[in-house]
């Protein structure tokens, strides 16, 4: 059965780290994660991906998908728990967003452990390719998920 389900979320944090991430990545949002069937959240963090509490600044993005598709996406998120990333991974994605694309930056982005928006993109990619605009794999920010990726697979924009 196809139903509109909460698939992922994006966050606009009101702190210095959030502001820096938004500026570096040229995004309106600074964090993202997958929502499980029971409403838990799985997201990437420098110390390792894992579960987190909902945020008051969270905006949920819904998708009309089957339970099987949702379970496949969530299983991928579970497989990525404990994957770590560093601030250089965010800086590298930011450089790509600003049009700075030397080889070492492209390699770092493609070979890095996933930051939060990359984790969402990787999980959803088990069923759909979110981006068809020629970007490098893993070149995705939280804002990209909402602004472009969601539209490419008919996901409803943030509505809550």
Note the main attributes of this structure.
5-stranded antiparallel β-sheet; 160 residues; disordered C terminus; alpha+beta; endopeptidase fold (from Nostoc punctiforme); globular
- What gross morphology would you assign? globular
Q: Count of DSSP helices?
A: 6
- Main β-sheet, spatial strand arrangement: 4-3-2-1-5
**In which range does the helix fraction lie?**
25-40%
Mean pLDDT: 82
Distance between the termini: 23 Å
**How much is the radius of gyration in Å?**
14 Å
Q: Can you identify the CATH class? A: Alpha Beta
Sheet bearing the most strands, described? 5 strands, antiparallel
- What's the CATH architecture? Alpha-Beta Complex
- Beta-strand percent range: 15-25%
Helices and strands, with pairings:
Blueprint: E1 2-11, H1 16-25, E2 31-35, E3 41-43, E4 50-52, E5 58-66, H2 67-79, H3 87-97, H4 103-111, H5 116-124, H6 142-152
Antiparallel strand pairs: 1-2, 1-5, 2-3, 3-4
Helix pairs in contact: 1-3, 2-5, 3-4
Question: Outline of this structure?
Answer:
It contains six helices and five strands; from the N terminus they run E-H-E-E-E-E-H-H-H-H-H.
What does this 3D model show about the protein?
The two termini are 23 Å apart. The chain is α+β, with helices and mostly antiparallel strands and 160 residues long. It is globular. It has one domain (2-152): endopeptidase fold (from Nostoc punctiforme) (Alpha-Beta Complex). A 5-stranded antiparallel beta sheet has the order 4-3-2-1-5. Mean pLDDT is 82; it is low at 156-160. The protein is 39% helix and 19% strand. Helix 3 crosses helix 4. The protein contains 6 helices and 5 strands, in the order βαββββααααα. It has helices at residues 16-25, 67-79, 87-97, 103-111, 116-124, 142-152, and strands spanning 2-11, 31-35, 41-43, 50-52, 58-66.
